[in-house]
Design goal:
Rossmann fold, globular, 6-stranded mixed sheet, alpha/beta, about 400 residues, 4-stranded parallel sheet, about 15% strand
Length: about 400
């Protein structure tokens, strides 16, 4: 079994008044092993503690407030390795707590949510961005702090429309994540009255580290002129080699270039620099989007405990999905949950590696109730019935 299946309990943050706390919330974090195909470059290795580090920062933030209110928080982690059984690990963790933050592929997440032990639990999806999880495959016991891929592609579509970049082409990879991103991008462009002028599939076997300067110009030549090239390369395999090698010198967006992200080190406004600094001090690296999603899950629970003075699933879930709930997420506006599919409403940053360009929803994209609902599945678009 995984190296942490004996579970590690993080309780060192309970000091002073918390030792005699009247309300105690125990949270689990489950990371399921996902076997991803190799990529050409290893320049962006995934941190070993991705996600968990965000949950721990959220735990410390909760405990800081909890000390003054008589509330205590603890975290148990289960990190699975290849071959470990995610359902057995989830059942064991659910035997300890009814609140679990999960980093797992969509299929495993749904299987965990359908366990008998999870029937009365509250699970937070902090990793899977699949649209069906917020649509006809939704579960009432799952809330989503990770934005859907549709929220990210909608953000880019708003930028294209705002800048009048309406002549668009796309190159998509062949991995399932690439295909899902390309599908979401097509849907977003249609949603905002745009369309692709042309698209091609990237299926090269050549080593682009050596051949990009020769292969990419030839591959992109037939696109002719265009405003923006969209890259659907969610594994970050080939997209980096497309930039500055295209036949026409044009902007690149999507999975490379101008990207729509949950979180980035370049976000410094709205007090975000403070969160960035706290995280870096604690974990000696930058905060990722997955870290932010886990942080938001932990902080959602902390905010609900603070406001309700309770620690049971029914009370906390009802409050989190109510109009009274707001989470200060360092994104310029309060974050809330959609009561029709459990998705955390949040702005999406449009950034490149050196700077924040804009934040969606962009000015001018209006909504009858909440402008954040212009990103991702709005109530009329979602087929989720579990929350009714």
């Amino acid at each position: 079994m995984g190296r942490d299946l004996a579970y590690s309990v993080i309780a060192g943050l309970m000091i002073g008044a918390a030792a005699q706390a009247e309300v105690a919330l125990h949270v689990g974090y489950l990371s399921v092993y996902e076997d991803l195909p190799p990529t050409l470059s290893n320049l962006d290795p995934e941190p070993d503690d991705i996600g968990i580090a965000g949950a721990m920062t959220g735990l410390e933030d909760n405990s800081t407030t909890g000390r003054f209110l008589g509330h205590s928080y603890t975290l148990t982690t289960a990190i699975l390795e290849e071959g470990d059984d995610p359902l057995a690990a989830a059942a064991a963790l659910l035997g300890e707590t009814s609140f679990v933050i999960i980093d797992a592929p969509a299929d495993d997440l749904l299987a965990i949510a359908d366990l008998p032990q999870a029937a009365d639990a509250l699970l937070f999806n902090a990793a899977a961005d699949d649209v069906p999880l917020r649509d006809d495959a939704c579960r009432a016991n799952i809330l989503h702090t990770m934005p859907s891929v549709a929220m990210r592609t909608d953000a880019l579509a708003q930028m294209f429309l705002k800048r009048r970049w309406d002549d668009l082409v796309m190159i998509a990879g062949t991995h399932p994540q690439d295909t899902a991103y390309a599908d979401a991008m097509r849907h977003s462009l249609t949603k905002f009255g745009l369309e692709l002028a042309a698209e091609k599939t990237w299926a090269f076997d050549a080593d682009m580290r050596r051949a990009a300067a020769q292969e990419v110009p030839l591959f992109t030549q037939d696109f002719g002129d265009y405003d923006v090239m969209v890259i659907a390369d969610e594994l970050r395999d080939f997209g980096r080699y497309v930039l500055y090698n295209t036949w026409e010198p044009r902007p690149v967006a999507g999975s490379e270039g101008l990207t729509a992200v949950t979180w980035s080190p370049v976000i410094e406004q709205w007090g975000a620099a403070q969160l960035q600094s706290r995280f870096e001090d604690q974990h000696a690296r930058d905060m990722t989007g997955q870290d932010y999603a886990a942080w938001a899950a932990m902080r959602s629970l902390g905010e609900a405990v603070t406001r309700t003075d309770a620690a049971d699933v029914a009370t906390l879930r009802a409050y989190i999905l109510s109009d009274a709930f707001e989470l200060a997420g360092f994104k310029g506006r309060p974050l809330t949950y959609r009561d029709w599919n459990g998705q955390l409403r949040q702005p999406i940053a449009l950034a490149h590696p050196r700077a924040l360009v804009a934040q969606a929803p962009l000015e001018g994209f209006l909504h009858q109730t909440n402008e954040l609902d212009t990103l991702g599945l709005d109530r009329p678009e979602s087929n989720c019935e579990a929350f009714q």
